[in-house]
Amino acid sequence: MDQTERLSVVRRLANGTDQLVNVPISDIRGIKTYNSVVTVHMKDGEVLYVPDYSIDGYFSLLKPYHFEKLDRNNLANMEEAAVYDGDAKRLYFEESFDKDSFYVTVSEPNIPKVKHLNNKSATAPETKKTKPRNRLVY
Question: Positions of the region Disordered (predicted)?
Answer without folding.
Answer: 118-138
